[in-house]
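re the bet — no i am not wrong, look at it urself. input seq straight from the record:
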Amino acid sequence: MNRRNFLRGSGLAAAGCALGGVRAVGQEAEKSAMAESGSFTFAFFTDVHIEPEMDAPQGTELAMEIINASDAEFAICGGDHVFDAQGAHKERIIDQYELYMQAEKTLRIPVRHVLGNHDVAGLQTGMSSHDAIYGKAMFERTFQTPTYYSFLHKGVNFIVLDSILVEGREWHPMIDLRQVAWLERDLAANAAYPQIVISHVPLATSMASYGPGSNDKKYEPVSNAHAIVPMLEKYNVIALLQGHTHIVESVHRHGMQFVTGGAVCGNWWRGTQYGDHEGVMFVTVDNGGISTSYTPTGFVSTESANT
């Protein structure tokens, strides 16, 4: 893809996107038609971290093949689509996003996207904050989506959060106050529906207890989760899907499941992450609850460094 045309086209697409907190086009009109919640399955794949090296494109292809062979009606990518946009130069950022898009185009079902910290462009480089792809702009333009939004599917309200708060050249795992206010409005407006929330950085996790190094600061949950979780408990939230830590985990509390969906890349394409293989999570919604299964892709690392 010609990079100049990519940026021009993605910029035009972004012009039609709100900065966040919207319902997907046409979803309001579909509410009455989707009032009854039926059983369905969707794919939740997260932390792809695609790059040209480490056989990452081949590993990503394995994940896409597994999704295509499933009965999933749609897919959600839980963030960190690329290996790293924060510290890469502009050409490599664009190359990584193009590489990811080539892989995703092989999917035969619709895909929703969640912002991950590694999807944010140029924070650790000299890139101008006015550059067309700086910060969250590259994500918004590539996927033609705001960073937080909601959508309905078969009588279930899905809420996608932006858990990456950017301040200056730093990011923090936090839901900003404007988004918190929007979240409560959306939860209240859809209280009659079962609701599923998706966040890249976990809101609840036992990660710190899983092994040497698992208590590293980089695995810390959303810093204002103590305010968000009680809000979710007030409404009909049946599950919260998470990524970021590359582990497979389910924490149950007050009737909610906090499900961490592993990682397509495992331990950054170097084997297992605390024993969890590269894979894809499948989520089935039925009878007002969810069940999950995790399918390893069978990827074999060229530089194994299991944790």
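see?? Residues 90-104 form the longest helix (15 residues). told u. also Confidence is low (pLDDT under 50) at residues 1-19, 25-35. so pay up
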